Amino acid sequence: MKAVGLRKYLPIEQPESLLDVELQKPVPGGRDLLVSVQAVSVNPVDVKVRSPKERTEANPRILGWDAAGIVEQAGPDCTFFKPGDQVYYAGSITRPGSNSQFQLVDERIVGSKPQTLSFAEAAALPLTAITAWEALFERMGIQAAAPANTGKSILIIGAAGGVGSIAIQLAKYAGLTVIGTASRSESAAWAKEMGADHIISHHEDFVPQLNKLGLQNVNYIFCLNSTEQHWSGMAEAIAPQGKICSIVETDQLLNLTLLKNKSVTFCWEFMFTRAMYETDDMIEQHRLLEGLARLIDRGVIRTTLTEKLEPINAANLKKAHAAIEEGRTIGKIVLENF
């Protein structure tokens, strides 16, 4: 089968940074599905994993953690899906990724593809939607579509990217007032299109900008950009007993004492945790994606696809990686068809 992988971890402009390769088609066992991949999208995690390091792979490493496709074969213990079913998923970072014609994925982290979306439109969503859903409704404990959220607000730092684009929509679905940050007019326009009520800059202090909007502080903060850079600003902007969640790791020490007097909760979100550790509640990602598909088919949530490349090959994946490295992407880049 066709696939795109790497043997060396190189800068994206290097010819061997990503390679077109041929691999043996895998066979599913247990609760694995063998999926015929129709479309994939590219995320910052792809770039981080591929980034230069002193290591080589004996066998090609396959990246890609977003896909939509058709079930080709189901393992003997599968109960959710059968051959012919259309699915979407992010997969596990500990297993070969979706940049291949066929991929094995545990059915407990797979959802039925939304009926109203194409494969490309669906492939834009899983990783970012799982991340945003878990951060809002599980890590920070926000109630979905609840009257209790009336009058409450959330600040989404880096609102125009892949995760921000879906987080805005989910936060609006929950009934929150959404303040997104953006640094360019086009990213601000996109965040507004996704449903943000207000846009402020993440290059300026948050509180004075919130005050101009008539807000003293915010109840929730979802950080998608440089945790350490915004740490003091988040501590100042969060309401007493508020909650902050970040997805951006840091190698700098964070002063948690800044959160003490307000009794603020801080938590991390990493959507691969359940699959990586095969947690007892791993099946929640299946349920999450099924619930998201229903919201999409009802018109509550829309795809965040903004750019489409064809076919799925090393050359086009290099273009997508380069665009993400530039840090100026809006929404999601999707590739379809091998």
TrEMBL record:
Nucleus found in the keyword field: no
UniProt cross-references to InterPro entries, sorted A to Z: ADH-like_C (IPR013149), ADH-like_N (IPR013154), ADH_Zn_typ-1 (IPR014182), ER (IPR020843), GroES-like_sf (IPR011032), NAD(P)-bd_dom_sf (IPR036291), Quin_OxRdtase/zeta-crystal_CS (IPR002364), Zinc-ADH_QOR/CCCR (IPR051603)
Residues in the signal sequence: none
Keywords recorded for this protein, A-Z: Acetylation, Cytoplasm, Metal-binding, NADP, Oxidoreductase, RNA-binding, Zinc
GO cellular component term of the entry, any: cytoplasm
Localization of this protein: Cytoplasm
Keyword Zinc set for record: yes
MF (Gene Ontology): oxidoreductase activity; RNA binding; zinc ion binding
Pfam families: ADH_N (PF08240), ADH_zinc_N (PF00107)
Domain Enoyl reductase (ER) stretches: 13-335
Family of the protein in this entry: Belongs to the zinc-containing alcohol dehydrogenase family. Quinone oxidoreductase subfamily.
Oligomeric and partner information: Homotetramer.
Name listed for the protein in its UniProt record: Zinc-type alcohol dehydrogenase-like protein
Source organism (scientific name): Paenibacillus sambharensis
Lineage of the organism: Bacteria, Bacillati, Bacillota, Bacilli, Bacillales
